[in-house]
Amino acid sequence: MGADLCLTWIPIKDGKEEETKKKLLEEVEKYNIPELSNNTKVKIINSLENEKSEEFEEFCEFWGDALNEEFTEDYPTEDTTNTLTMEQARGHMKRIIHQFFDCLNYRDVSSINHKGDTMYLTGGMSWGDSPTESYDTFNKFVCLPQKILIAGGIEFQ
């Protein structure tokens, strides 16, 4: 098995990084999802995992860390006392936003200007692992709910 070239990029309006971050964080405060019990999480994961769908990959990419924080060593099936509350979900989304903007100054991130946007890029050769430290952060960031990304002016065409 050989190596693959893995690249990811995110466009932000030139010179609008702080404004974009502020808008994203404001939208997170307004964002609302229902609380998910562990039982509900297990059902969602099991149903999506059986399909090995894109939705499953996106669900795991974004909510994986938050879910793991809530779950015990024994994967719960009936316990509904632990829930991923909206505050925990918001906290998780805020951490991802802060981590993304922090990594824009890392050595493994480059930028180019294109038609009024700064395109932040990271990546490299991969043998099954992440090619850079920032690569996973970028991927988690793009898995934020579309409503939040669009509020920050981040759209992929």
Describe the structure.
The chain is an alpha+beta fold. The protein has two domains: 1-31 and 86-157, no CATH class; 36-84, no CATH class. The protein has helices at 17-30, 38-51, 54-70, 86-103, 133-142, 146-151, and strands at residues 4-13, 36-37, 83-84, 109-114, 117-126. The radius of gyration is 17 Å and the shape is globular.
Descriptive keywords:
two-stranded antiparallel sheet; 19% strand; 3-stranded antiparallel β-sheet; alpha+beta; globular; 157 residues; 2 domains
Give the helix tally: 6
Question: How is the biggest beta sheet arranged?
Answer: 3 strands, antiparallel
Radius of gyration: 17 Å
- Spatial strand order of the main sheet: 1-5-4
Fraction of helical residues: 40-55%
* Anisotropy-based shape: globular
- Beta-strand segment tally: 5
Gap between N and C termini? 32 Å
**In what range is the share of β-strand residues?**
15-25%
Overall SS class:
alpha+beta
Order of helices and strands: EHEHHEHEEHH
Mean pLDDT: 76
Q: Unreliable segments (pLDDT under 50, ≥5 consecutive)?
A: 68-82
Count of all domains: 2
SSE topology:
Blueprint: E1 4-13, H1 17-30, E2 36-37, H2 38-51, H3 54-70, E3 83-84, H4 86-103, E4 109-114, E5 117-126, H5 133-142, H6 146-151
Antiparallel strand pairs: 1-5, 2-3, 4-5
Helix pairs in contact: 1-4, 2-3, 4-5
